[in-house]
């Protein structure tokens, strides 16, 4: 499909802002997927094309964090493989079943995440003792990777919350490693969706250019201001995603709440 120059420019602007948000707290898909659909892109193609542009933006953020020495690639190599495999399976399943039933569960998980960051003691910028072992980290990340490939919204927020709450990481460190894990899951889902012929390459690549720039800006902001911005932005993005999901009359939880 072909889009006008004005629409392309708007999508690039949205991708830049989403790249900044993604690098700091995750949730950039809240902006890019609705923008693509508003431009007339069908839902599955919108999700696939978003994976293309966000993969570049996430990779940009990973490079920025890695240059500052904030990513332990050796420790997180196995979890990244788990995220890749889980996401590939999730994206494969996505193309064969209706993911709508998950939409009712995700708002509940997001609200729990908001409660955690609201009532939990202020997270340290330094890593603390992990409550769980390396095997648990691989297993949990694999499950979240499956979710990213199958559905997607909030993946970065979930990963950051898990790394802080269960594995004792400081917010900046958790954010940096979330980008690495999210890159693995994004690439896996992208490859699977490319094989399925779902990606709009021209649109996705021009958005990717803007997303790369946004990812660099967001990563530098995260390193500069740390938890002062990350924590409240995680809460805001989680609440925004919850409201967006519940605003859909087809959402099972929304339908139940409305009786």
Automatic annotation (TrEMBL):
Domain of life according to the entry: Bacteria
GO cellular component, one term: plasma membrane
Keyword Transport attached: yes
Record keyword Transmembrane present: yes
Keywords associated with the record: Cell membrane, Membrane, Transmembrane, Transmembrane helix, Transport
Compartments where found: Cell membrane
Transmembrane segments: 7-25, 76-94, 100-120, 132-150, 156-175, 187-209, 229-247
One Pfam entry name: TauE
Coiled coil: none
InterPro entries to which the protein is assigned, alphabetical: TM_pro_TauE-like, TSUP
Protein name in the entry: Probable membrane transporter protein
